Amino acid sequence: MITTAFDYHRATSVDDALAKLAASGGKLLAGGHSLVPLMKLRMSEPTALIDIARIPGLSGIRENQGSIEIGAATTHHQVATSALLAKVCPMVCEMAADIGDPQVRNKGTIGGSLAHADPAADYPAVMLALDADIHLQSPRGPRVVKASEFFQGLFTVDLAQDEMIVSVRFIPVKAAAYAKLHQRASHFAIVGVAAALDVSKGVIQSARVGLTGASSHATRLTEVEQALTGRALSAETIEAAARGAGQSVTDVNADLHASEDYRRAMIPVFTKRALTRAMERAG
Ligand SMILES: Cc1cc2nc3c(=O)[nH]c(=O)nc-3n(C[C@H](O)[C@H](O)[C@H](O)COP(=O)(O)OP(=O)(O)OC[C@H]3O[C@@H](n4cnc5c(N)ncnc54)[C@H](O)[C@@H]3O)c2cc1C
Fold it and tell me: Is 282 exposed, middle or buried (0-12, 13-18, 19+ CB in 10 A)?
């Protein structure tokens, strides 16, 4: 199907994008890899698109006083190939490198992925594990939302119609990893688990574990985090913590890719894989 008719505007700055968004009541267009398919299916019928892909300064990966900032229009390819991220937080590169295919990675953006909040998207789990701050801008000014509060339901996030994601910021964690069971064709996650560990003198001081693909929206596996905290970092600790992973998730998906039982069975498997890789990176 072809889309309904729409006006196209190219924004030259964040302020310009917000003004055009407010004036048109339309939708922001970043990589178009989630929005355009929805428009072709007539599940989304915006009367105007505001293209933010080429706003100067809205893409790029920067380090600032020990914190990483990724601009909203940064593509998956830029994230996957970032030398800075490979050095300080390789989990983010490995996740982005396994999104979709080269075309998707060359056009799709971190801001679009987070705003769209597909239940099978990879970024949400990783941003939960990094305890990232999502920076928003609107005509009312800036706002910061924690990743743990941002994902609220199926394709539902804490983002108003006139708001825009401008960047994502987090403290990089080296001892972190992402493991996913992906759909063969699209590479979307059937189950994806991101784990980040804070380890001192062989003891896990704190752990954050994000889950995607399994339910309506990405969520933290707090029971696993609690089972790890204060324990010696070892294969036995990981095995024990991962065993019950996902038991608190009440709305596990069932679709043509995997049944509820299969997804439930895979959550501990991929939790263990992510934690084991994170342990290796802890050194
Ligand atoms: C074949 C295929 C395979 C894919 N495989 C994967 C995969 O393996 N893993 C995965 O995670 N994803 C996958 N995706 C999704 C892909 O990552 C998309 O790029 C991403 O979900 C959306 O990013 P986008 O930049 O294309 O956003 P768009 O499609 O342009 O926008 C999506 C939504 O976000 C809004 N939006 C965009 N930018 C902003 C912003 N800065 N602030 C506020 N709202 C904004 C738009 O208005 C729209 O509602 C796949 C997509 C396709 C087509």
Answer: middle
Helices (H), 7-46: 14-24, 35-40
Question: Angle at Cα 36 formed by Cα 31 and Cα 37, nearest 5°?
Answer: 120
Of the candidates 61, 47, 134, 65, the one whose C-alpha atom is nearest the C-alpha of residue 93 is: 61
Pocket test for ligand 1, best of 20, 55, 116 (most atoms within 8 A of CB): 116
CA 70 to chain centre: 12
Q: Is the CB of 133 under 6 A from ligand 1?
A: no
Which band of pLDDT confidence, cut at 50, 70 and 90, is reported for residue 283? Answer: confident
Amino acid identity at 266? M
Distance 168 CA to ligand 1 centre (A): 15
pTM of the predicted model, to two decimals? 0.97
Pairing state of beta strands 133-138 and 67-71? unpaired
Distance between CA atoms of 41 and 259, rounded to whole angstroms? 25
* Segment holding 261, helix H or strand E: helix 260-282
CA of 117 to the centre of ligand 1 (A): 8
Tell me the C-alpha distance between 36 and 22, whole Å.
Answer: 21
Give per-residue pLDDT as tens, 184-206.
999 999 999 999 999 999 999 99
Measuring CA to CA, which residue among 253, 240, 84, 75 is closest to residue 170?
Answer: 84
Section 135-163 average pLDDT? 97
What are the φ and ψ backbone dihedral angles of 100, each rounded to 5 degrees? 45, -125
- Ligand 1 centroid–CA 114 distance in Å is 8
Q: Is the distance from CB of 170 to CB of 150 less than 8 angstroms?
A: no
Number of other residues whose CB lies within 10 A of the CB of residue 144: 10
d(CA 267, CA 231) in angstroms, rounded, equals 21
